[in-house]
Amino acid sequence: MGLLTILKKLKRKEKEMRILMLGLDNAGKTTIVKRLIGDPIDTISPTLGFNIKTLDHNGYKLNVWDVGGQKSLRTYWRNYFESTDGLIWVVDSADRRRLEDCKEEMHKLLQEERLEGATLLIFANKQDLPGAVPTKDIATILDLESIKTHHWKIYKASAITAENLLEGINWITNDISKRIFYKN
Amino acid sequence: MESSTPSEEGLLERICRRDRERKNIIEKRKEEKQQLIVESEQLSYFKNIFYSRCKTIKDWLDSTESVPDSKLSKIFDNVQSEIIILKTYLFDSKIFLKAYDLRRAQDTLQILENDATQLETKLIPRKKFGFKNRRVFNTSVQSSDVTDDLKDLKIAESIATNGVGKQNNKQICNRYGDNTCMLLGKVDEKLVLDAENVNKNDVLLSDLKRCTVRVYGTPNTLHMVSLVQCTVLIGPVTTSVLVDNCHDSQFAFACQQLRLHTSTNCTIYLHITSRAIIEDSTKIFVAPYNWTYEDQMNHFKLAGLNPKINNWNSIDDFNWLTKEKISPNWSVLEPDKRVKSWD
Ligand SMILES: Nc1nc2c(ncn2[C@@H]2O[C@H](COP(=O)(O)OP(=O)(O)O)[C@@H](O)[C@H]2O)c(=O)[nH]1
Ligand SMILES: [Mg+2]
């Protein structure tokens, strides 16, 4: 029995998934996590280092890693890649100024060997703002069509109104479970 | 006495042979037994080595709190290489490890690794982890989409600048399919944005030199990029203020979060209900928000900011994460040096 099989078996038993939440700073990662957990969202501070939160969702235990988006931390993202099942990339849809930066960071991330095969969910966040770039334009700007190495899906979302947050989480957990719990 | 009979010889030889055989069997059994012991001992041997070395790493990490700063990077280097060694050891040992032991060892390593990363980020001011090759992927074919998009943005900006700028007393609000207000590329000007244009929209101030900017109302987010020798006064911002590459300027604003990057010699008259962080910045001075205008209290309400909560003097520096000493990159502006009136 190889290491991978052992790990797979363990995972299947515990119904555990490891999900990384990444994106530029100020995208709304921490707010989304807090919204999902039901914590208050009006006192959120910029994330120093990272938070790990566990969500129970549809019988799955999701370990969500919310990693600070500051430049000095981006090189540390690597440290969290090992055995990641899913990646949630959060975009500040109103931040036109940094959309290019956002695209670059995301594509760079997807080239990481250790993230190979991880399911990718993109939240086009802050869609409650009148100045938000429409989701389909975000998809174009981020060049999602070119992604062939990962299952991906983009959702129009808002951490403030909670629009599509659960839908997104449902999709990513379904996709992951199809891959790691049933296929062998 | 000279010799024994053949039958006797035969007997003696037979006895010797049997004895040898017996000994061989014993030896073999012993070996087999030994082998078994080895196998079962392998696990405890592994555990011994593995966890005692984990303990060593833990001790190293614990020592970082009390060790002089100059020794820190050596310690973290040691921790890193030790973790790698243990990872290899674990990998090599997986053949005889049971799933449970394997998992436990992996978890232990993972925790150590996370602790190390966290501590290192906290204790060592950033130098070696620059993000220099961020633009590397710029050359790829795919980036054309983005450039095109940004080109559109530029065009929209210049339309806004030419069209509205003249009519509206240098007030520029663009409507590039959205409600972003922008002030771009001005030198030596006095600029004003009004509440009706600003409320709930994102405001971008970029590439301004020696300008005075007043923004009345409640922007959703405020971006300030590449401002030099400017004075910028702003009403309550609903969410965050992002500052990048600003120098020799003074700002007054209220907001929920502040993230200030790569800036020097700036004074911020600040009202902040959550926290401010700075990164790659020096000579940052803070004082309480003291710009007032009519309607400001309404704007606080509109922005959802509590006027009574202000954490203006607690700033986190991403380049200075030790708790014992305060970052040299920012300080409180002495009261007698503060601007008394903005008119
Ligand atoms: N309008 C709006 N603001 C949001 C949304 N999500 C987050 N924010 C705000 O954006 C700022 C940054 O959020 P935060 O969660 O700290 O970002 P992080 O750096 O990605 O963790 C905060 O002021 C949030 O209130 C959203 O969906 N809509
Ligand atoms: Mg955060």
UniProtKB/TrEMBL annotation, chain A:
Origin superkingdom: Eukaryota
Q: Which GO terms describe its biological process?
A: establishment of localization in cell; system development; vesicle-mediated transport
Residues annotated to bind Mg(2+): 30, 47
| Alphabetized UniProt keyword annotations | GTP-binding, Lipoprotein, Magnesium, Metal-binding, Myristate, Nucleotide-binding
Q: Which GO terms describe its molecular function?
A: GTP binding; GTPase activity; metal ion binding
InterPro entries under this entry?
Arl2, ARL2/3, P-loop_NTPase, Small_GTP-bd, Small_GTPase_ARF/SAR
Q: Which NCBIfam families match?
A: small_GTP (TIGR00231)
Which family, according to UniProt? Belongs to the small GTPase superfamily. Arf family.
| PANTHER family in the cross-refs | ADP-RIBOSYLATION FACTOR-LIKE PROTEIN 2-RELATED
Name assigned to this protein: ADP-ribosylation factor-like protein 2
Q: Which organism is it from?
A: Ceratosolen solmsi marchali
Automatic annotation (TrEMBL), chain B:
Entry keyword Thylakoid: no
- Cite the C-CAP/cofactor C-like domain residue spans from the record: 160-320
Q: Which GO terms describe its cellular component?
A: cytoplasm
Chief subcellular site? Answer: cytoplasm
Output the InterPro entries linked to this UniProt entry.
C-CAP_CF_C-like, CAP/MinC_C, CARP_motif, TBCC, TBCC_N, TBCC_N_sf, Tubulin-bd_cofactor_C_dom
What Gene Ontology biological process does one annotation of this record name? Answer: post-chaperonin tubulin folding pathway
| A Pfam short name | TBCC_N
One GO MF annotation is: tubulin binding
Q: Which Gene3D superfamilies match?
A: 2.160.20.70, Tubulin Binding Cofactor C, N-terminal domain
Q: Where in the cell is it found?
A: Cytoplasm
PROSITE patterns under this entry?
Answer: C_CAP_COFACTOR_C
| Keywords (A to Z) from UniProt | Acetylation, Chaperone, Cytoplasm
Q: Family, per the entry?
A: Belongs to the TBCC family.
Q: Subunit details for this protein?
A: Supercomplex made of cofactors A to E. Cofactors A and D function by capturing and stabilizing tubulin in a quasi-native conformation. Cofactor E binds to the cofactor D-tubulin complex; interaction with cofactor C then causes the release of tubulin polypeptides that are committed to the native state.
What name is this protein filed under? Tubulin-specific chaperone C
Write down the species. Answer: Ceratosolen solmsi marchali
Source organism lineage? Eukaryota, Metazoa, Ecdysozoa, Arthropoda, Hexapoda
